[in-house]
């Protein structure tokens, strides 16, 4: 039986990846030098497609890392001297806060209850902080920060660096990236690619902050410092031997998404989300974990279960549907359903039918 992965990352590969992978192997993409003209063309295509797909403003740079986890550390190294403030809505936003604390900076935080988000008016952000970290979509709980909250923080603190985690929501969210200084994601979620590649978006303010730290004789990393990464990026290269195959696939898949159209991707995401949430609410054994509808993620749906989550996961596995279990302490109490661009409307309808049939 062929399986369809609705796990929230790694997830189902984008439906065109198989053909792109065959093409890449035929063209020996995995063997080319990262200092060659062939690689520079691959790099340039991926960057240009990401900029177009996300509608990035002028002056924003796209850099490649090994993962989104790595980007947390790069942000701390390059963009913070002594103090940051973190909106914590779950395990992943909390992990960024922990990394900042590991660097012995004054990492302040406002933490929401699981399944909720921090309201902007509840965050007592001091003027002394240098960077404000927000997570648009918390993959562990399915709680999504409304875009207007992010814009409100930018308006209230225009002179602070604003960092945004869009790991499990880009490219779906219609984010105005001019409202943040840095954003980041990894490719194994909404972009439907194998894990092992992070994408870091930075603007001029970030570069200036890193150079300021460097000029003050502060450590900002070595080969993966922001200035060194940017220097290579301007040549369509990376500081180290990169995941050439991953970058090639990213460029091709973002090209496919551009051909399909971001508006169509967003409409389909909204439809699938509505179908799945309706099914969850119809099931007596399930309930949306995020109680306030305006805070529910459209791309990572989390349902609490009145039975052991393994029963729900097992029932759908018989149909070849692989759901995610709850994260951390919620492993046996939650299911998580990815709703990414690669997931078809028909497969979302199939999940909905199976949930209602088995757990109504």
Written account of the structure:
There is one protein chain. This protein has 360 residues and is of the alpha/beta class. The chain folds into two domains: 4-12 and 261-359, Aspartate Aminotransferase, domain 1 (Alpha-Beta Complex), CATH 3.90.1150; 17-258, Type I PLP-dependent aspartate aminotransferase-like (Major domain) (Aspartate Aminotransferase, domain 2, 3-Layer(aba) Sandwich). It has helices spanning 17-26, 37-54, 68-79, 91-102, 147-156, 204-215, 226-233, 244-260, 262-282, 309-317, 345-359, and strands at 4-6, 61-65, 83-88, 106-111, 131-135, 137-138, 143-144, 161-165, 182-186, 198-202, 286-288, 300-305, 321-325, 334-338. Helix 1 (17-26) crosses helix 8 (244-260), helix 2 packs parallel to helix 8 (244-260) and helix 9 (262-282) runs parallel beside helix 11 (345-359). The radius of gyration is 20 Å and the shape is globular.
């Amino acid at each position: 039986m062929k399986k369809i992965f609705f796990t929230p990352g790694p997830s189902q590969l984008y439906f065109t990846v198989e053909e792109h992978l065959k093409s890449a192997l035929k063209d020996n993409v995995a063997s080319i030098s990262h200092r060659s003209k062939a690689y520079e063309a691959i790099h340039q295509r991926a960057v240009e497609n990401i900029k177009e797909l996300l509608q990035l403003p002028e002056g924003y740079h796209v850099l490649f890392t090994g993962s989104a986890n790595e980007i947390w550390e790069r942000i701390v190294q390059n963009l913070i001297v002594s103090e940051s403030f973190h909106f914590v809505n779950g395990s992943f936003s909390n992990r960024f806060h922990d990394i900042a604390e590991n660097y012995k900076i004054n990492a302040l935080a406002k933490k929401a209850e699981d399944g909720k988000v921090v309201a902007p008016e509840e965050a007592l952000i001091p003027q002394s902080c240098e960077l404000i970290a927000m997570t648009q979509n918390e993959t562990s709980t399915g709680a999504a920060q409304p875009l207007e909250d992010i814009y409100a923080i930018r308006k209230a603190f225009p002179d602070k660096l604003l960092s945004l985690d869009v790991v499990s929501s880009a490219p779906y969210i219609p984010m105005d990236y001019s409202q943040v200084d840095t954003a980041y994601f990894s490719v194994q979620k909404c972009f439907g690619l194998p894990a092992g590649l992070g994408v870091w978006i930075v603007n001029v303010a970030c570069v200036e902050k890193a150079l300021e730290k460097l000029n003050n004789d502060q450590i900002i990393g070595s080969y993966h410092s922001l200035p060194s990464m940017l220097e290579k990026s301007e040549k369509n290269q990376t500081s180290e031997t990169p995941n050439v195959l991953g970058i090639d696939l990213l460029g091709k898949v973002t090209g496919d998404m551009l051909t399909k159209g971001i508006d169509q991707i967003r409409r389909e995401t909204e439809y699938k989300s509505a179908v799945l949430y309706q099914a969850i609410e119809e099931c007596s054994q399930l309930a949306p974990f995020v109680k306030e509808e305006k805070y529910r993620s459209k791309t990572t749906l989390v349902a609490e279960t009145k039975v052991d989550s393994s029963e729900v996961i097992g029932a759908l596995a018989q149909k070849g549907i692989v759901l995610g279990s709850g994260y951390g302490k919620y492993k046996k109490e939650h299911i998580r359903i990815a709703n990414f661009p690669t997931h078809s409307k028909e497969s979302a309808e199939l999940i909905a039918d199976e949930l209602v049939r088995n757990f109504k």
